[in-house]
Structures are given as C-alpha cells and as structure tokens.
Design a protein that fits this description.
Length: 363
C-alpha cells in the first residue's frame, strides 16, 4: 500500500514538474516604467511606439516571453492571425489573456495583428477580425496589416478568392465600424502600394517589411517617407538569415557592428536597433530571454555618431537573400530540451485544454 502511495506521489510530482516546465507559470509582479518608449504619429492620427515586441517566432514560448516583455514595459505587441502559440492555441489568444491579466489599461497597449489572403473578401475579413477581437479580449485593434499581398498556386496564379485590393476595402469597412484604428500592409512592393493608394479612403499607416543592416530596403523606405507611411522593420536582428540556415547570426556577429558595440560597451543588438530607429524604422524584435529583452529596451538610450551610422549603412547588400528555390530545407539541428518540451506541450494540449494558459476554456 505504502509503495503504491509512494509511486503515486512520485507520479504527481513528475506531472507537476512537467506542467511547470510547460506552462512556465510564475507570479512575477509587473513593474511598469511609465512612458518608457517614444512614439511616432501615424497618418491615421494615432501614436505608435517606435519599439515593440514581436511574437512571430515564439511558438510554445509565447506565454512566458510575452509576459516578461509586458512586465518590462513593452507596449507594442506584434502578432498575426497565423501565429500559433501551441497547437490549437493561437498567439492572439495568449496575448489577449496576458494583457487582461496584467491589469494595465488596454489603452496603454498598441496591438498589431495581420490577416492572410484567405480573409480578403468582406465576409471572411469581418469573421476573421471578430475572432481576433474575441481572442485579444478587446473592442478595437490598434493596427491591422495585410500580411502578404497574395498566395500563388504552382502555375503562378493567385489562388485566393479576393485580391489585396478587396482585402484593403474590407479593412476600411472595419475602420468605419470602429473596430480597427489604423490599417497597413506587409511584404508589399512599391507597385502594389501604389495600387492601394489609388483606391484608398483611409491612409496606409504602416508598411511592415524585412529590414536589417544587410537588407536595408532603401528605395522603398524613401518612397514611404515621401508618402507618409511609417516603415516598420521585421527580423531586424537577423531573423531571416537565421531562417535561411546562416549561422551564427551574421548581423549580430558582423565585425563593424560588434566593434561599435564594444566601443560603447553595449550589445550588438542595441547598436542595430538604435541605428534602425535613427533611420526612422519602427522595430519589433522578439526574444525569449530577459537579458535580451532588457538590452533591446536599453537601445533607446544609446547614442551613435554619424560616422558609426554611415558604417552600418554601408553594410547594405553584404549578403544576398536566398529566394525559395535556393533555400536548404533540410532539418536543422535543434536544442533537445526545446524539442522535448514542444512534444510534451503538443501531447498535453489534447488531454488538457488549459495547457499553457486557461484561455481556451474561457472563450
Ligand atoms: N510580416 C511578416 O511577414 C513578418 C515576418 C517575420 C517576422 N515578423 C515579425 O517580426 C518579429 C521579429 O522578427 P524575427 O523574430 O524574425 O527576428 P529578429 O527580431 O531578427 O530576432 C532574431 C533573434 O534574435 C534574438 N535576439 C533578440 N534580442 C536579442 C539580443 N538583445 N541579443 C541577442 N539576440 C537577440 C532572438 O532570440 P532569443 O530568444 O535567443 O533572444 C530572436 O530569435 C517577429 O516576431 C514577428 O512578430 C513579421
């Protein structure tokens, strides 16, 4: 009998430890520095922080990392309808719950989400945004972006019902209804932006595109400045190169950047982010590490000289992007602990819907 009890206790202990690892629950108190992050005014008239937190690559780490980011003072949170925290739990759900639990007034946050081409028709777009409002536990979304202009099938023909022009009109309708404050686009080229400009009733407030020291998108950024569109960069710390399998991170290990960082006694990430903000690029680095989250905020109080700025500008084009056909899709080596955590989370998500957050059961 005692043996059975002992085995049961051990099993409970093991199960509780797994849940702790998986959910990462903790009771960190939020300590929020006021007005930490400067803002930029959008064409819609609303203010947006110049530095935010990207959740696109966090996966099962979304809960812990976003909670830390909120507690440290991040207020712009970038998500998308396609971002998933764990299977069957969209990132939007987790973010909505964390914002509500933070006790910080909703108006202090700036939430960005994105819709894919399958939501371009009026009906689908309305359904998608209503779902986002529910997941995010809010009556309005600060900024909604068209995630990408189109999908193509194998023969290169757009394979969705509506076009990005339909998508834009659908978003404008939801601005008129008061559930979206500002609208914008992502992964767009100049020609597509002009086509939207031609029919737009509401301004294009933001363009979110890939931007880092090796891929500076200079022409398009100049066009945006001219058109009054705020340029928001993604993967500014080298995310795209890492995805292409280039390791170690070429941006954060670049010799020009590491030298400037060493001279200021700062991290390379701080140098890159402050340089980007000085170029009028809004940045949304993602991170799972407290030290990195703190570094990224500290970038705001770093001063770079004109000479240092020019040195980083001259890094543009140092690596050539690899387009789909060139990318090596063979599986990359992974951290075994991450792998095990992901698998456990995945399995538990079927047997216990409260895994990671209790969001699902509350909806
Ligand atoms: N619109 C789109 O199509 C699109 C595409 C891609 C991304 N995005 C958005 O942009 C966000 C950012 O892009 P990203 O995640 O590709 O990459 P990123 O910002 O370039 O970051 C790359 C990696 O850098 C590490 N990092 C962050 N801060 C650091 C620091 N201070 N020192 C050292 N390393 C640091 C992070 O890993 P650690 O966890 O180790 O810190 C992160 O995984 C995404 O989360 C998403 O919201 C949008």
């Amino acid at each position: 009998m005692n043996k059975i009890r002992l085995v049961l206790r051990v099993l409970i202990l093991v199960f509780a430890s797994i849940l702790y690892i998986v959910t990462g629950e903790n009771n960190e108190e939020a300590s929020v520095p006021e007005k930490l992050i400067p803002t930029v005014r959008l064409k819609s008239g609303y203010e947006m922080p110049v530095l935010g937190f990207g959740t696109g690559k966090l996966g099962h780490r979304t809960t812990n990392a976003t909670r830390k980011a909120i507690n440290m003072g991040y207020r712009l949170i970038d998500t998308a309808k396609s971002y998933i925290a764990i299977p069957s739990v969209p990132s939007e759900m987790v973010i909505g719950k964390l914002i509500e639990d933070s006790g910080i007034p909703r108006e202090e946050f700036f939430i960005v989400t994105k819709i894919l081409p399958e939501y371009f028709t009026e009906e689908e777009c309305r359904k998608a945004i209503q779902e986002s409002l529910k997941f995010l536990r809010t009556s309005y979304i600060d900024l909604v972006l068209i995630h990408t202009p189109e999908y193509f099938d194998e023969s290169g023909i757009s394979d969705t019902e509506g076009t990005y022009i339909d998508g834009w009109k659908s978003l404008e309708m939801l601005v008129d209804e008061g559930v979206i404050r500002s609208i914008g686009i992502s992964n767009f080229f100049k020609e597509e932006i002009i086509k939207i400009q031609e029919i737009a009733k509401h301004p294009i407030s933001v363009l979110q595109n890939w931007f880092d020291p090796y891929f500076q998108d200079r022409m398009l950024r100049m066009e945006c400045q001219y058109m009054g569109i705020v340029y928001m960069g993604y993967s500014t710390l080298g995310g795209v190169w890492l995805e292409d399998g280039i390791k170690p991170n070429p941006i954060l290990n670049d010799e020009v950047i590491t030298k400037i960082a060493a001279e200021h006694n700062r991290s390379p990430a701080e140098v890159v982010l402050k340089w980007a903000i000085n170029q009028e690029v809004v940045v949304i680095p993602g991170s799972t590490k407290e030290e990195h989250l703190s570094n990224n905020l500290n970038s705001l109080n770093l001063e770079l000289s004109e000479e240092e700025t020019v040195q980083i500008v001259s890094l543009d084009g140092k690596l050539e992007p690899q387009y789909e056909d060139d990318v090596d899709y063979t599986p990359k080596s992974r951290d075994p602990i991450d792998f095990v955590r992901e698998k456990i989370t995945y399995l538990l998500s079927f047997v216990w819907p409260k895994v990671n957050t209790d969001v699902k059961s509350e909806l």
